[in-house]
Structures are given as structure tokens and as C-alpha cells.
Design a protein that fits this description.
Largest sheet of chain A: 7 strands, mixed
Pfam families (chains C, D): E1_dh
Shape of chain C: globular
CATH architecture of the largest domain in chain C: 3-Layer(aba) Sandwich
Number of helices of chain C: 13
CATH architecture of the largest domain in chain A: 3-Layer(aba) Sandwich
Low-confidence stretches of chain C: none
Domain Dehydrogenase E1 component (chains C, D): 40-320
Structural class of chain C: alpha/beta
CATH class of the largest domain in chain A: Alpha Beta
Helix content of chain A: 25-40%
Catalytic activity (chains C, D): N(6)-[(R)-lipoyl]-L-lysyl-[protein] + pyruvate + H(+) = N(6)-[(R)-S(8)-acetyldihydrolipoyl]-L-lysyl-[protein] + CO2
InterPro entries (chains C, D): Alpha-ketoacid_DH_E1_comp (IPR050771), DH_E1 (IPR001017), PdhA/BkdA (IPR017596), THDP-binding (IPR029061)
Number of strands of chain C: 8
Low-confidence stretches of chain A: none
Oligomer: heterotetramer
Protein name (chains C, D): Pyruvate dehydrogenase E1 component subunit alpha
Bound molecules: thiamine diphosphate, magnesium ion
Largest interface: A-B, 53 and 53 residues
Strand content of chain C: 5-15%
Number of strands of chain A: 14
Chain lengths: 326, 326, 357, 357
Amino acid sequence: MAQITLIEALTMAMAHEMARDPSVVVLGEDVGVNGGVFRATAGLSEKFGPVRVLDTPLDETTIAGIAVGMAAQGMKPIAEAQFDGFVYPMVDHIICHAARFRTRTRGRLTCPLVLRVPWGGGIRAPEHHSEANESIFTNVPGLRVVMPSSPSRAYGMLLAAIRDPDPVIFFEPKRIYRQYKEEVADDGEALPLDVCFVLRDGSDVTLVTWGAQVKETLEAADALAKEGISAEVIDVATLKPLDFDTIHESVKKTGRCVIVHEAPRTAGFGAEVAARLAEHAMYDLVAPVERVTGYDTHIPLFRLEMKYLPSVERIVAAAKRTLAAG
Amino acid sequence: MAQITLIEALTMAMAHEMARDPSVVVLGEDVGVNGGVFRATAGLSEKFGPVRVLDTPLDETTIAGIAVGMAAQGMKPIAEAQFDGFVYPMVDHIICHAARFRTRTRGRLTCPLVLRVPWGGGIRAPEHHSEANESIFTNVPGLRVVMPSSPSRAYGMLLAAIRDPDPVIFFEPKRIYRQYKEEVADDGEALPLDVCFVLRDGSDVTLVTWGAQVKETLEAADALAKEGISAEVIDVATLKPLDFDTIHESVKKTGRCVIVHEAPRTAGFGAEVAARLAEHAMYDLVAPVERVTGYDTHIPLFRLEMKYLPSVERIVAAAKRTLAAG
Amino acid sequence: MSIAASFEIEYLQYLDPEGKLVRNDLPEFARDPKQLVELYKTMSFVRVFDSKAVALQRTGKLGTYASCLGHEAAHVAIGSAMHIDDVFAPMYREYGAQFVRGVKPREVLMYWGGDERGNDFSGPAHDFPWCVPIATQCLHAAGAAMAFKIRKEPRVAVSVVGDGGSSKADFYSAINMAGAQTLPYVSVIVNNQWAISVPRSAQTGAKTLAQKGIAAGLECLQVDGNDLIAMRTAMDYAIKRARHGHGGMVIEAVTYRLSDHTTADDARRYRPDGEVKAAWEREPLKRLRNYLLAQKAWSDKHEEAWKAECERIVDIEVNAYLETKVQPVEAMFDFVYAELPVDLQEQRAQVLALEKR
Amino acid sequence: MSIAASFEIEYLQYLDPEGKLVRNDLPEFARDPKQLVELYKTMSFVRVFDSKAVALQRTGKLGTYASCLGHEAAHVAIGSAMHIDDVFAPMYREYGAQFVRGVKPREVLMYWGGDERGNDFSGPAHDFPWCVPIATQCLHAAGAAMAFKIRKEPRVAVSVVGDGGSSKADFYSAINMAGAQTLPYVSVIVNNQWAISVPRSAQTGAKTLAQKGIAAGLECLQVDGNDLIAMRTAMDYAIKRARHGHGGMVIEAVTYRLSDHTTADDARRYRPDGEVKAAWEREPLKRLRNYLLAQKAWSDKHEEAWKAECERIVDIEVNAYLETKVQPVEAMFDFVYAELPVDLQEQRAQVLALEKR
Ligand SMILES: Cc1ncc(C[n+]2csc(CCOP(=O)(O)OP(=O)(O)O)c2C)c(N)n1
Ligand SMILES: Cc1ncc(C[n+]2csc(CCOP(=O)(O)OP(=O)(O)O)c2C)c(N)n1
Ligand SMILES: [Mg+2]
Ligand SMILES: [Mg+2]
């Protein structure tokens, strides 16, 4: 079993499914010989040839539109948006078509595509290379929106996404692509979608997060532990459809919840988690819900970007506020 | 002073600003001689000529992109998306450029455009003509997202939107375009943006809504009044930036809140309102927050669409649940 | 100065507006009067259906409907030139093509009657559904063609877009992809001169719409879209080329929208009467009928009998449509995902509970 | 068959790779050695700046940087052909055009150094900022041109897009709009043969990229983009035409990206060394220098002195950049809206409070 990074786990999952299922194809800009600008598709073109690992023309509308067409005709395309900031020209085909083919045709045509989106800030990249824009998709029926936060979850969730009979937007926290290695067996075992993962048990406060922010949130839990505060950490993993039960169970226990995400606060997906708590956990909460998020501004260019992203310090402070409150 | 409908108020506002400010132009599909498929721009081409009331080629990317270019060069374009469902190809230029020119250039270039979007269901229209997709924009810094719900607010808020130095996404609840007439003076008086309007005072429960759903919500308040329940009704009007204070003041008084919107529930903008309550009104609430919304499905074609939209019955039932709860 | 590249756009017409042959190289199918009669009968059926659908809308029995009046030759030529296992990606008024391919008139009515089941074609199960967001279907067809190429299937994808739709980004993206990848994809622009109220002259500065294919390195052809023989010839050529691996093609079918844009539109607001009157002189049924009459392959008696038969069939279809019960309310949940996610189950139960009250 | 339309794409070149004149109709500006020398000096300055910027990135003093090595003729020709009140919409490597227009080298460095103030050009205040989302700048330029038309200003908008970018929907939309509205808009495709790792052959089946303009009914021209004289001649022609109301034009500048795509790229992974070597034979500085040397308008001594001067100026700019203090943290709030909305005030206060700790 190899020690691999998150991005290597993604490559391994794609290679596994391409070998297993001839209908799986990869398409995008620079995914072929170059192996992707992040090297996520490295080696796939050599293994599976340029027809199944397709360098498209430089047009995201094309990538999304032909992925939809291929998926509706029995293929399983894995399309890549080169960066989060370039996903917008794909939105029309994803929302109007990928998400709707099944319902539009009463199940006659379906759209089992995966859209891989390297996501988020903190890598000192140019403008539009650092967006946390998962909210674009979370209000859209018919989509799954997922985001792994470790090598093993990346492998298992990408397998699940490829095998899913419906379209999946697969956000990849690029800041932690190579954060650490983990043993991941190439055993073809998918992880379940539509469920949260409890990464750390705790009894005083529930920290809910996803993506790259899982790193800071776990570090915050460590820091809190040092002060005798026991934090439960939940990786939402599948944002849509949301597994609220797991979050609710935790809050029943802790009575406190801090939601952490990188996207701007207002109408970020954290709002949905907080809203569910306001609807269903009112009598469980002993303190107001806290959100630690990106600000309602654009993520700055890189000289200031770390001031924008939620820090361990901000998470710890929010957790302590919930403890002080109730 | 004329008795006019909501859509006539929009036309009046555009005509007023075009006469006052030569930099205001209207562009979109069929906005010229045809006066718009809903007649919102009726008469403008005759009054201001085909150069200032521009029938564009059939391409929403073009409309959004040239509106951005024009706005950055000192014009005040009012762009029309013919229907809500056709706004998606505009999203890239709105999010990556309109919303960012000011911050990107540190104020050197700005983007004072208005994007008018006939919005929502309930008019027995074909697919993609009935979307409540305001969530696409509410997580995006730099944008204003507004939605009037009466003729006078339509007039005053559209004037304000056109005069605003920043980009405004102006959703128009098409189901109530011609619901009723109101006296609206063509006096050039703008209404404030960034504030909620309290449409009805009440003491038992706060009903928060926007757009076409204001109609059902006011009717629900009437129905509740008949049963001795006093409902306060708030028209959010500007979704982003949100005037949470007005909502909070009301909930301090009533202790109960029902949020009503047409969009799918999960990650709809109602989530943000509920989240703010969970953060800031925890000790004011005596009952869990309720959301009465579209379901997390696509709005059905018109034989079933009224089953999808929030009804007076559903709003009343939710309000009563909050009363039963605490 | 040296010349880096040069191009010509040809124009194809066999029958003039009066139904007279203007060339003497009739293709094989057109030398067989029986085939032409069959195609004429389909065109004529479409027209009967179309006027019935408009009438249904006027009497409140149908929602907004997009008429195909005047487009019958182009549409029937497209449908009849395709193999059944080719894939068709329509916009929203290509009933002629779809009927040939097996879509039922009652399905067209269900669709415009606000019932998703209209898109569950009993005809070609792999054809794309009607596509409201203009020109997006072009990329779906290109994607289908890409799938055929990957799977080495000798199939062709055909999309239709309007003159207005040929301004849209997706149209260019699709032909560009077809050119870059030599895809079996035929993009037909049905140029009916109007996009709702916007005339073709406001859409583009290009002299022909066919020449847009040059941007993608595709072969391009402009065709008299009211001339069934020319349209069918062009489609046969394009589809054969594509099937044999020679890549995509752009065909501009020059025709005219004789109706309002849809029943929700009033074209008198923006379109001169004279133009419409002149267009009726060039309409597609008349010229093919004249030609067949001259060939003695058709007669007034045939015409009358066939019209009656069309009315009879259309009535059956209309009745079937009118008798279709509305879907159960939970249908709105049952096709959103393959399996209903846990997160939606409560909402579905709520809807059912509300319905039962 | 009749011909509906026909087109030719011309190719323009004055100087061959060795710097020999291949035509004898030199335009006026090129008959003045002083002007050519000035242009050469600018090209040469750009190259010195560029290699310094790459070095800064390699030593960790700059973020990702997009080199313009090999594009100097095309860029300087564009910048110098424009009036100062025309509007330029760049992509991200057109420093040559921007320096001519008054953008400071330190601003380029600030931008790639992660500081938004780099886009607050001290040069032409109305020029568009660098544009990362490929080809979107084309529509902004077309929008600017539309504004000029509405306001009846004799100004021209020019955008640059790459060979890759010319596949993107926005590129077509912009030229289509220009054609439909006869806009004063010049769309330059700087075809450097690669879009990161994707070769031009994978982008499109079109023989030339210039011919894409045919789709929009625009005049099109293919130019040797390494030949300053040809590029400047083409730009002068296109801009003059546009300024006089004759509409838009598409110019393909054929050149080569001699560098990696950006400093984050390693082109050896996908690009044959031999191709790069051959491209160096055709690079733009050498041929203009050879020509000027032959004309006795330039000498090795001039060359040496000018290089030294360039180094000196670039050092000043680099130092100014390195000394620029980071913006105060609240800057992230202060340009989101004209006035900070009430809803954001608390967040701004939080950031300041965190900073003070
Ligand atoms: C993306 C998008 N924008 C706008 C519309 C509204 N709309 C429906 S049909 C139409 C005009 C289409 O004209 P054309 O492409 O020429 O086709 P025709 O209807 O004439 O056959 C418009 C603007 C739409 N359906 N989709
Ligand atoms: C919409 C979008 N998609 C992808 C990218 C990532 N990207 C940056 S440059 C580039 C290649 C551009 O190639 P080309 O247009 O030929 O210009 P060049 O860099 O060669 O000058 C890509 C794919 C982007 N910036 N924007
Ligand atoms: Mg048309
Ligand atoms: Mg390039």
C-alpha cells in the first residue's frame, strides 16, 4: 500500500475507473500529455491514449457542453475545470442540462458526469485561481456537490462520484493537494457520498467544516484540547445533499456549533448548516451558532490572502465564544 | 399621478433615467422595436432610438460582456436577461468582472451596470422560464442583489439601481408584473437600497420574504389575522447586502420567524436569514425558525408548478407551528 | 501579398418557388416519385398538426406553442436523411424531423402542455429532448459525436439552431470542437430570418450564415431551405461525409418563419406584412406539390384524401393528449436523482401529505 | 452550383527571418529609421525587463509570472499603433504594448507580486486591467467600442487574445457583435502556437486563425507577428479603418512562445526542443536589428549602450517594486463597493481588530 498525497489519490482513482470501465473518459485543458497543470491526470494519457484523455480546445463552455452530450449518450466523462475561477462558463450546461436531463426526460436520458474543480485559496496564485465558489451549485436540484479533505477520502469519494448515476461537482482543495501522505490501497472501494465524516469526537463544541479548512479546524481542535476543551470535528464532505443528521447528533451532544468555511460568509454554504440548526436544533443549542468564514469581499491577491482565510486563531476564538455564551 | 402596474413602473423608471442621463442605455434581446417580450422596454426605442435601446445578437455572453465593457468606460447599461433561466451564460462576466472591476483596479475602473432579470414561476411558461435563481449571486462580493415587490418599490428601486455606482442584479417577479396597479409619481425619487421594507406591523410572528412571494405572505398575514394572530411582514427587497437589523428588530418583538421564498430550500437565500438568526437572535427566538420554500427539486412544468410554489396554506401552517412551539 | 487561404460558399437549389427544376443533376432519391410523395405527405401532415396545435393553444388547451409553419421542408429533410441510430438534437420546433424519427404528435402536445413526459419520446430513445436554452443543443450533439468517435460507432449527430441561435457562443464552440476533433457532427442553421423580433441583419455582419463554418475549418453550404430536394441532398451529403470520418459540416437552410415566433408573440408589432406575403410565395409545400403535380405523381384528389387522413390522425393524437392525466404530485421528486436522497425524503412526504388533505 | 460568397485571407510580411525586405512597398513609418529604432529600443527594453522578472520569480521575489519572450514585435506594434485615448484590453503578457501606453514596469511587477495596485495604471487610466479569464477581455473591448459608437467618439478598442483564447466563446461573441454593429474594434490573435501544453493544431481545424473573422463578416488578415514592420502596418490599417467607421477587423499575428507558459510551467514536458530552437531563428528582435544594422541606423555600440540603459531603468523599477509596502489589511474591504455597506462594517472592524493584536 502506497503512501500518497491527496492529488495522487485522485489520479489513482481515475486510473482505476478508466481501467475498469471503458466508458470513463477524462477531458479538459492540458489534461493530456501535460498531465494537468496540477498533475492530477499525470500518466493517464500514456495509459489510456489521447482519445480517452482529451485535451479540449480552450473553452469551458465546450468542455461542459460536450461532457453533457457524452454523458447523455452513455459515457462517463470526468471533466476538469483548470481552476475554480474558470468554472463559470460551465455553469449554464451544468445547471440547465446536467442537473436536469433526468427530470426533463423522466429518466430517459441521464447525465452521469463528474466535474473536477481545483478549489480554494492559499497557494499564492494569480487572480481567479483561489475561489471558494461551491455556493454556485448548492442551490441547484439534481446535483451532488462534494469535497474530500484527505487522500483516502479523495480516492474513495472520487470513485463514488464517477460511479454515481447523477452529475457530481467534485471540488478539490488544492491547498492541501500535497499537504501530507496517507496509506491508500488501490482497491477500488468507493466511500459513500451523501454522508458527513466525523473526524474527531468531542463533547464541548461541534466544529463543522469541509475542504482545505479541515486542516485549520483540526489544528484548532488540538489547540482547544490543550485548554481542556473537547471539540468534535465534522467534515461535511458531501455538501449537497446534506447529511444533517450527523451534524445534529453532534450538536445534541455538544450544544454548540462553529461552522468554518473559506467562501464569503453571506449565503455561503455555512448558512445552510446554520439554518438547519435554527430549524431543528433550537432546543439543543446552548449558545448561538458561530460562523468563521472568508469575509464578504473578494479574496485578495496573494500578499494579503492569508489575512482573508479563516485561521486557527479565529476558529479557536469562535469556539471559546460559544463556551462563554452558554 | 398614474395608476400603474409593476412592469409599467419599471418602464417609467427606465424612461426617466434615460431622459435625465445620456449615459444610460438599454440592451438585450427584443428590447427594441418589440419593447421586450414582457413589454418592459415598450416605447423606449421610439423615444431614445435604436442606438440607446439596443437589440443585441442572441447571445447572453455578449450582452453581459459588452455591458461590462460599456460600464467600465463610463456608460450606465441596463442589460436584460430575457428570462431567469437564461442568466447563466452571463454569470462569468458578472462574477469575474462586473463584481470585481472596482476591487481589481483599486477603484480606477468601476462597473455601474444593472442586469434586469424577469424572475420566478407561476406564469405557465415553458421550461427555463420559471427559475428562482437569486442564489447564484448572493455569495458574490461586490454585487447588489435586489428584488422589488410592488409598483412603487419597482420604480424607486430601479432608479436607485441605475444610479448606484456598483453593479446591481435586479430581479423582477414576473408573476406579479401585472398583479395590481398603484399610484406611482414619475418624480425621479429613488428608494434606498440595502434596506428591508416592513410591509405590515405585527407582534406574534415575523414573516420574511421577497419578490412574488410577498403576495402569498401578505395573504397569509390576513388569514392569520382572522384567527387573531398578528403577523409582521418584511419584504427583504435588497438581499445583498442584507439589512439584518430590520429583521432582527422584528424578531426581538415577535420571537418567531417564518422565512418564505420560491427558490429551492437548500442553500436558498432564506438560509442566510435563518443563519443570521441562529447567530444573533438565539435569545430572542421562542420557537424554531421555519422556512417555507420551493422544494429541493426543479420547478415542474406548468401542469404541476403551483404544487411547487409556497402557498398561503403552507405559510399559515408554518406560522402556526411557530406559535404552537413556544 | 500572398494568400494564406481562400474559401467559397456554394448555394444549392433544385426547385424554384414555382416548383420548376433549376438543375438537371437530380439525386437518386428525387428521381423516385414515390419517395418524394412520401416526403411531401409528411410535410403536409406536419402542417395540419401545426395548425391544430395553434388552435389548441388559442382555446386554452395548450400552453405556449412554437409553430413550425414554413420550416417543413428543412425539418423533414433533416429527419429523413438521418439513420435511426444517429442522434438528433433539436431546438423546439423541428416536429417534422422528429415525426420522421418516431416522436409522437401527442408527445409534442404533452411537452407544450406542461408535462415532462412529452420528452420521454416513444421514438428514438437516445435523441436529445427539446432544448430551450438557445444553441446549447449544438454542444450536446458535438458531445454525442465525440462519444461515437471514442466508441468507433458509425453514427452521426445532427443539431438544429436558428439564425438567432447561430450568434450564440455554444454554436461556435460546437463547430470548433467538431473541426478540432474531426467529429461526425452536422450543424444545421435553419435561417428563418427572425429571432423573435430581431431580424437576421441585426444578428451578424456575415453575408451568409453558412460561412460561420469557415471559422472552424468545416465544409459549409447554403441551401434553399424551402426546397425539399435541395435540403435532402445537402443533408445526405453531409451525413455521409460525417459517417465516413470526413468530419463536420455547417448547412444554412434559408427559409422563413411564416408564423409568429410562438403563440405568445405578436409578430405584427415588428414585422412588415409585405415581407410575410412575399415569403408565402416561396413556401415549401407549394413548390414540391407543383413539382409532383407536374410529374403526375400527385393530384388534387390525392391531396384532399391525404388532408382528411391527416386530420383524422391528428384528432386521435389530440384526444390522446387531452385524456392524459396530470402526473402525481410526487413526480416532481422522482426524477431529480436516480434514488431519492435521504435529505429529500421529508420534503416528498410533506408534498404527499399536503396533497391528501 | 452558384456561389453565395467567397473569401481570401492574405498574409503580410515585410522582413524575413534574416531581416531582409521581402516587399518594396514599405509604409511611411518604416521609411524613417528613427522611428524604427525607437520601436526596436522598446522591444529590446521589454526583453530585458522580461528576463529580470523571470529571475525575480526564480528567487522568490515575485509570484507566478507570464513571460512575453518572443512576442515583442507583436506587442510593441499594437501599442504604438494605438492613440493614447484608444482603449486597450490585454490578456496578461502584453507588456510591450502597455509600456508604450504608459504602464510602468513596477506596476507589472506589483500585479504578479500579488498586489492589486499593479492594475491601477499610471498610464492610460481607461485601459482595461490584465484579464485572467481567457478571452473575456474581447467582449470588454467590444463594449468599449460600443460606448464609443454611442457617444460618437473617434476612438478604437483593441484586444489581444491567444491562439488558445481564439477557441473561446467570448472571442466569437465579440467579433460577432463588432460585425453586427460595425464597431471600432480590432481583435488581435497573438498566435504563439501553444496554449500552455495544447498545440494550435488541437484548438481548431481552421487553416488560419485569421479566417475566424469571416464568421462575423469582418475583414481578416494574417501577419508575420515576428515582423515589427508587418505588424505595425497591419495595426495602422485596422485602427484607421475602425476609426473611420468601417468596422472591426481580425488580425492573426503568427509568432512563437519562446518561454514556458508561465514560471509555473515546464514546457519541456510537452514541447520538442527542436521546435523551440527553430523558432529562435525567426524571433523578432534579431530580424529588426539586422535590418537596422544593414540600414546603418543601429550599431553594436548602440546595442551595448542601450542594453546597459535598459538594465539601469529596470533596476530602478524593480527596486521601487521591492520597496512597495503591503497594503493595509482593510484594503480588502475598501474597494468592494463605492461605499462600504453597513452589512460589511462589522467584518471590517473584526479584521482590523485581529490585525492589531
Ligand atoms: C439562451 C436563451 N436566450 C433567450 C431565449 C429566448 N428565446 C427563445 S426563442 C428566441 C429566438 C430564437 O431565434 P432563432 O434562433 O432564430 O430561432 P427561431 O425561433 O427563429 O426558429 C429567444 C431569444 C432562449 N430560449 N434561450
Ligand atoms: C477561462 C480560462 N480558462 C483557463 C485558464 C487557464 N489558462 C491560463 S493561460 C491558458 C492558455 C492560454 O493560451 P493562449 O490563449 O494561446 O495564450 P498564450 O498564453 O499562449 O499567450 C490557460 C488554459 C484561464 N486563465 N482562463
Ligand atoms: Mg430564426
Ligand atoms: Mg498561445
